[in-house]
Amino acid sequence: MNVSEHTFHVLKGLFPESFSVELVVLAIWKKAVVICGSWLTSTESELPGGSLADESTPVQGGKVLVPNSEDKIDFSSPISVRMWAEQGFVVALDRSENLSCHIQDMDAAAEMPDAMEIIYQKALSVGTDGAVEEYMENRESAAALYSKAMLLLSFIVGEAMSLQLKPPFILDHVNKKRIQSYINKLQSRQSNFMISRPTHS
After folding, report:
1. Which pLDDT tens digit goes with each residue over 44-65?
2. Last residue of a domain, one of 100, 123, 152
3. Please, are residues 152 and 6 in contact by the beta-carbon 8 Å criterion?
């Protein structure tokens, strides 16, 4: 979800790279749909003789009839969240299919770009941009960039390894520790300048 927002737009024209990242995004939405389905099922089982399924809006023609903006989603409602996840999955699937058309002529022996490496490098780049903004005393911009970098890095050391990817993503202890140290440093920098008072000449 957020991984797509923070990486996809910078890969325009780089179709293999975009396709690799989009497959990760697709796996994220797929997992979200499964989780939401389990939540809905558990909620229905708690209702005496009732079912929430009939209240949901079906997927029709590749579209889910729910608002596109996350701020319009009721995240306390399993039906609302499931439809939001289904819509996200459909959108990611559509993007993946569109991107696949651009790589059909690739050499079959060529290796696809490493999506996690792309996300990792993007996180480092965003973090560096945050440091520049901090140096320029643009605190709000720096805070936003640091948050984005931490989000991407946290995804790599956390949720990424639980996704159904081919091949599976594996992060060894050394690299996980190294990335976690980057996250800690970003958190420290963000906290330090956010709590400090701006100086006035």
Report:
1. 766 555 555 444 444 444 444 4
2. 100
3. yes
Model pTM score = 0.75
Provide the domain count of the chain.
2
Tell me which residues of the chain have a pLDDT lower than 70. 1-13, 45-71, 108-109, 196-201
The CATH number covering residue 166 comes to: 1.20.58
DSSP secondary structure, 112-153, as one string: PP-HHHHHHHHHHHHHHHHHHHHHTT-HHHHHHHHHHHHHHH
Q: Which residues contact 93 (CB under 8 A, 6 or more apart)?
A: 26
Which residues share a beta bridge with 64?
A: 59
**End position of a domain, from candidates 65, 100, 135:** 100
Q: CA distances (Å), 196 to each of 49, 140, 192, in order?
A: 57, 13, 6
